[in-house]
Amino acid sequence: MTAPGLSVELTVAQRNVQLAFEVNAGATVGLLGPNGSGKTTTLLALAGWLIPDTGRAYLGDTTLFNCPSPAKRPVTWVPAKDRGIGYLSQDHHLFPHLSARENIMYGMERAGITGRKARREAAEAWLDRVGLAGLGKRKPDQLSGGQAQRVAIARVLASGPRLVLLDEPLAALDVDAAPAIRDVLAEVTRDLTVVLVTHHHDDVVALADEVVHMRR
Ligand SMILES: Nc1ncnc2c1ncn2[C@@H]1O[C@H](COP(=O)(O)OP(=O)(O)OP(=O)(O)O)[C@@H](O)[C@H]1O
């Protein structure tokens, strides 16, 4: 399946955020800007967790939201669970009672991927792909921070998202662990449409095809 392109424009007056940008199908755009410039706000609106005052976002042929006026309800508002968007933050947010493999399988189940055996096999393949072959039975508290973030990457990607949102995905990692995981992210998102928020120039160089510079 080919990744869709993304087009977004939005304003959030209370947060003093106003922006517009496009991402080509299968490309990664990096959002760079100082604290408070609206990077997280933009990701929240795309993910479906924040309704902007005005704006529109199109993912391929799908209208994610269409908010013509702050005084009116959105004309179109696709709920977060129906957007087919994968969100990865700096915290892995793995379920502590589930193994690494079960966490990945959970992401697939939520995305409607049927068949427990198929999910299990796919989860094993994802563990392999993110460099964790053989560690599928470990619970999050038996993994290092870097290994847990690799599981989180696999959980997001295994669900087959149409758009991937990366919110400072390497910020919580040791400087020693970050480069290898950056390489994993670059490999697994190569053909996907991605919006990346980061403060790190290394992330932009390794992951982004284009950069949006945001100002306060
Ligand atoms: N829950 C909130 N309610 C009101 N204003 C908020 C809220 N969260 C953030 N803001 C404000 O909205 C603006 C944009 O914040 P946002 O978190 O999107 O910026 P950011 O670029 O992601 O910053 P950072 O790099 O610090 O994460 C800031 O002025 C911030 O103070």
From TrEMBL:
<feature type="domain" description="ABC transporter">
    <location>
        <begin position="1"/>
        <end position="216"/>
    </location>
</feature>
<protein>
    <recommendedName>
        <fullName>ABC transporter domain-containing protein</fullName>
    </recommendedName>
</protein>
<keyword id="KW-0547">Nucleotide-binding</keyword>
<dbReference type="InterPro" id="IPR027417">
    <property type="entry name" value="P-loop_NTPase"/>
</dbReference>
<dbReference type="InterPro" id="IPR003439">
    <property type="entry name" value="ABC_transporter-like_ATP-bd"/>
</dbReference>
<dbReference type="InterPro" id="IPR050093">
    <property type="entry name" value="ABC_SmlMolc_Importer"/>
</dbReference>
<keyword id="KW-0813">Transport</keyword>
<dbReference type="InterPro" id="IPR017871">
    <property type="entry name" value="ABC_transporter-like_CS"/>
</dbReference>
<keyword id="KW-0067">ATP-binding</keyword>
<dbReference type="InterPro" id="IPR003593">
    <property type="entry name" value="AAA+_ATPase"/>
</dbReference>
<dbReference type="Pfam" id="PF00005">
    <property type="entry name" value="ABC_tran"/>
</dbReference>
